[in-house]
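To whoever is on call:

I kicked off a structure prediction for a single chain this morning and the downstream step that reads the tokens threw a length-mismatch warning. I double-checked the sequence; it's 326 residues and nothing unusual in it as far as I can see. Pasting both halves so you can look.
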Amino acid sequence: MKEGEGKHMNLWQPTSENIWQGRNDLVEADNALRIFQTIKQPASFSPAKFPHHIALLGFECDEGVKLNQGRPGAKLGAEYLRQALANLASHDGHDRLVDLGNIRANPGELCEAQAALSEAVFACQQHNMKTLIFGGGHETAFAHGMGIYRAFPTQRVGIINFDAHLDLRNAPQPTSGTPFRQLAHYCQQHQRPFNYSCVGASLAANTQALLDEANHLDVMIIWDMHCIASLDKVQQQLQDFINQLDVIYMTIDLDVLPIWQMPAVSAPAALGVPLERLLPLVQLICQSKKLQAVDLVELNPLYDMQGMGGKVAARLAWQLVHWWNG
């Protein structure tokens, strides 16, 4: 651990060398490439060497999920998602991926781990890298969001959260259910606007207290039913939101997908927003030229079925990197 090293960066570890493996088709043609063959994997945390690339970081943490009374296992999600992504074909944009390793949480030390991830994100953004984080529970979002707010102190930052849950809980300590309330509090403290949209939220999964908090914070909620019934209208709502911003942080809680596509989460969705409906919305954001940061969170391999959740998450990650420009 060298560059960007802070008091918490001793939690950093390189990705295991055996993670990036797949089928070798180079005998067929020199451009028959897969992700494991084009991803860059430096030996140290070195964002200064890779400007204009995408920093891939894992957040091996489910301390927030445990505190939110969820099912632990998301700390295994980052490596699981890398393995599912490794063998997919490498096309435009995928060669920009640089694996900068993992932040691994110590048991019971959520805030320490979040501080380490925030420092890593800030260092990457300072060196003109975009950040792609594989969580971890949704406590990932507080750390990632803090890194973005710090990196862009004068810009209009907006958060687009694809999620069945608003994650605005009022709790005595931070959890995977509190990240956006925490970020709202940070914005209030620093006289910054809190621009937050939650897309794919389930009315059945959010209490009236959470809706009251969302109303208080002027959150733009786009319900799961609307994403299914009127995609054109939702795209226009998102575009209007994007037009007001300079920088976008997109966070995807995989429990926004229906249980039959994504069983591998702490709280599977009975309805959800199917991948074929989610992808056009993700594309809109990726091609906005304002997207600086993305995370995919809550992938829990312990509850996957026949690798289904891993494959769906990998296709989503693959697709957004392919579309990501600006």
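Update from on-call: the warning came from a stale cache, not from the record. Cleared it. Sanity check on the structure: The radius of gyration is 18 Å.
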